[in-house]
Write a structure and sequence with these properties.
six-stranded mixed sheet, Threonyl-tRNA Synthetase, Chain A, domain 2, 35% helix, Diaminopimelate Epimerase, Chain A, domain 1, single chain, 8 helices, 3 domains
Amino acid sequence: MTERLYYDNSYLKRFTAKVTLTESRNESESIVYLDKSAFYPTSGGQPFDTGTIAGLQVTDVYVDPNGDVAHVVNGRLDQGATVECQIDWERRFDHMQQHTGEHMLAGCVFRQLNGRTIGLHLGHFDSSIDVELPGGRMRLSDEELNHLEDEVNRRIQADEPIRCYFPSEEELKTLPLRKAPTVSEHVRVVQIGDEEYCACGGTHTSTTGQVGLVKITDARPSKGKLRLTFLCGDRAFKNYRLHLDTVKELTKLLNADISKLPEAASEMLEKYKDACYKLNREIEKHALDTIREKILRAAEINGYKVVNHIFENLTADGLKSAASEVTANSKHVALLACKTENNMLALFACSQDVPCDMRKLLNESGGRGGGSAEFARGSLKDAAALETACKLLYDLL
């Protein structure tokens, strides 16, 4: 069984070990077993460590069915060789900060809200916990979220000691664990200060102060539970820098102080909406003028007039207004479209005295959509599809 060095010392960056077994994984990778290892294997929601073994890159670490730690490396090593190993410390310490912060946040959720954490995910960008709250609650108020953050960060500032150890069976029975262990033997306990006791086999900082900062970035329902997304340590600091840089840029663009940014942004948005409204009204007015000219010039087929046109820039409501302008006249048909990013918005309509099914015509011309015999809308692939619709309609009339 692999001796797991990280249990006793999460800060161990380098160590020497003996290769007990090697197995080929594929042409470029092999699986290496060591007599002892400080590499943390994926488990409990915490990702594996990376680093090097005898200069070879470690690309995965996991616990095999026999309980041994398996290391995947990009090369080959001889069985029995003594090798120098090095942990990717930046990745390891980041995981230590996230995992310790998770314990502290989960403890606060338990004490303040009587919530039970049932899942942890340490992601590449952020981390999350899934929480069961009394009564099936899946949302928290801003005030509740602030209280959680306040307590966690007060404990960080207190720089409380963190102890990771294997208590005896008798001692384990006396500890106020936040939740029952997932294993029955060799239970490892993480104790944070005098309040937080939790069974966990992960890597953690030695004091709360090294977590630096905990920030909740999102809280929403997920699969019947509350999911809290958070950042700890350097991740939280970098996130703060990103947000501050963004705010600084916005103050320049909006020519407003930070405290006035919401007001300035709201004012700009209202002006934008008003400008868009006025622009759309002008576009629709121009579209109606165009349609009126088309009506006057439309060729007559057995007493019926067909108006077809492709607009460059028109809303769906504008297209509907243009079609209504056509069908307000007896024995008139409107085959209209407007270019969009991927295809064309189409609207086929006719007055009540036209013996044609617009919905059927739209589908037979290669379009997709629905509606009625007098009014159908959807999408066309291209201008050629509108030409096809015109030819089919001419044949019907």
